[in-house]
Write a structure and sequence with these properties.
The complex is a heterodimer of chains A (253) and B (280).
Chain A lengths: L6 H18 L7 H8 L1 H14 L27 H8 L6 E6 L5 E4 H6 L3 E8 L5 E10 H8 L7 E10 L2 E8 H4 L5 E6 L2 E2 L9 E3 L12 E7 L12 H6 L8
Parallel strand pairs in A: 1-10
Antiparallel strand pairs in A: 1-2, 3-4, 4-7, 5-6, 5-10, 7-8, 7-9
Chain B lengths: L17 E3 L3 H26 L3 E2 L13 E6 L2 E6 L2 E4 L7 E2 L5 E2 L15 H28 L2 H6 L8 H12 L14 H23 L3 H6 L1 H7 L2 H29 L1 H9 L2 E3 L6
Antiparallel strand pairs in B: 1-8, 2-3, 3-4, 4-5, 6-7
Classes of the chains: A alpha+beta (253), B alpha+beta (280).
Chain lengths: 253, 280
Amino acid sequence: MSSLISRRSLLTGLALVTPALLVGYGSVGTSPTFRDLMLSSGEFLSYRTHRLIASGSLAREFDAAEISPDFRMNGNVQPRSMDYQRHQSEGFANWKLDVGGLVETPREYSLADLRARPARSQITRHDCVEGWSAIGKWTGIPLRAILDDVRLRADARYIVLKCADDFSGTPYYESIDLVDAYHPQTILAYGMNDGVLAVGHGAPLRLRVERQLGYKQAKFVMGIEAVASLAPIAGGRGGFWEDAASYDWYAGI
Amino acid sequence: MLISPIPDTKVLPQGGDLVRRHWLSTRLWHWINAVTMLILLMSGLMIFNAHPRLYWGQFGANPDYAWLEIGSAGGQGFLRLGSHSIVTTGILGQWTDGLGHPQTRAFPSWATIPSGYNLSLSRHWHLSFAWVFATGLAAYGLRSFLNGHLRRDLLPQPAELRPSHIWQDIRDHAALNFPKGIAALRYNVLQKAAYLGVLGLLLPTMVLSGMTMSPGLDAALPWLLDLFGGRQSARSIHFIAAGLLVLFVIVHLLMVLLAGPFNEIRSMITGWFRLPEEKR
C-alpha cells in the first residue's frame, strides 16, 4: 500500500498544492516582484496578441437608436484649476491645444481651428473598467490629422494627453501607443450626441480611443506631447490611474 | 479513464484490485483548474463588486434598469432579482469585515481576491489566470479528442441514452448506489452528461463571454459579441455561467465525499484507483 504513494506522485502532489498555498497567503498579490512577474502577464500577453492579430480592427459603430438615453458622467466632472475655469467662463474662446514634444513643427490649435477641419462622427460603446457600458455619439478631429500636421520625429513612440483636471492635486494624464494614435477611430472630440461636449464629459476636448476602457478616454485635454518613453513622466506608468493604483496601461482588456 | 490491469496478465480487474484510472493529462488539468478556477472566481467577485449590477443588451449603467443588483439600503444588505428583493445582511451588500467594521460591498472579503477592495489588483489576478484557464481548456480539449478520451469515456453510448437506462441511473444516484467492480471504471450516463455539459458548454462560455469583456477583442472579433447579444448581456451570461460552475463544483465535491474521498482523490493525483468490492 505505502509503495502506492511513490516519490513521483508525492512531488507531483506538492507541485500542485504549493501554488494553492501561495494563493492562500494573502499578501502575495501585493508583493511588487510577484505582481510584476506574474500578475502583469495578462496585460502583456493581451497587448501583444491584440496588436498581432488585429492592430487595424475597427470598434463596432452603432445606430442612433442605440444611444444610451442617459450617458453616465464619470471621473472628474468639473476641473478645479483656475486657468480651466477662466476658459470655461469664456466659452473656451481663448483656449488653445498645445501640441509638442518629439515633433518637427510644434503648434497650437484654437477650438475654431479644430472645428474648421474635416470632422469624424462615430456612435460607439464606452466601457468603464468597473463593468458598465454607455453608447454615445462623438464628433471630433482625428488625432491622425494633427499628427500629420506636426510630423512625428522618428524617435516618438507614445502620445501623451495632458489634462486640466486633477485628483487631490495630482494632474490627470493618459498615453497611447502609435498604433492607437493613428487609428482612424481615435479622435479628439469636441461634440457629443449632436451637441457641444458638456463640461461633465470633458469639454472642450476629450480623447476617444475606442478599443480601450473608459479611463483612457482623457477629458479636458489641454496638451498633446509625443515622447520616446513614458518612464520620465509623473509616476512613470503612462497614466493617472496607472500611477495611482496600478491599473493596466493597455486597457484593451 | 484507461484500464490497464496488472501487467502480463490477461485477467480483467475485479473488486479490490488497484487499476490505472485517469490519464496524466486529465490529472494535470484537473488540479491546474482547481487552483485557477478558484482564483478566477474570487477575483471575479471582486471585479463584480466594482459595479454590482447586471443588465441585458449592448449598454447598461447606473441610469439604466438592472435585472440583478446587490447593494445596501437603510443598513441592510439586499439582493434584488427583477422586482423581487431579499435581505442578505451579513452575507451580501452589508457585512462586517475581519476587524469588525461594517462594509457595504456586494461580496464579502472572505470570498474575494484580494480581500480588501482593489479593482486593479483583482483584474491583474483575473486577466493573468484567464490565460492559464483558456490555454488549459484548449489543450485538454485537443488532447482528449486526440487520445480518444472524449469518444471512449465522455460521449454516451447509444444504449446509455435509452430512457430506461437514464431512469435507472437516476434511481441509483438517488439511492446513493454507486457502481462496483469494473463498472466503477466507466462514467455513468449522468456523470457523462455533467462532464460534457461543463466541458463542452459551460467552460467555453466562460472563456468566450470573458473575451467579450475586452473592447480590444470586441473590435477584432465582433461576431463573438453578437453571439451573446451585446456586452452587458455577455457580462450577465459570464456571471450566470460562473454561478452554474460553482453549483457543479459543489455537486462534484459531494459525490467525491459519497463515493469515498481517499480512493477518489488518490486516483486524481496518482492515477491509481481501487475498484470497489462487489457484494458477495
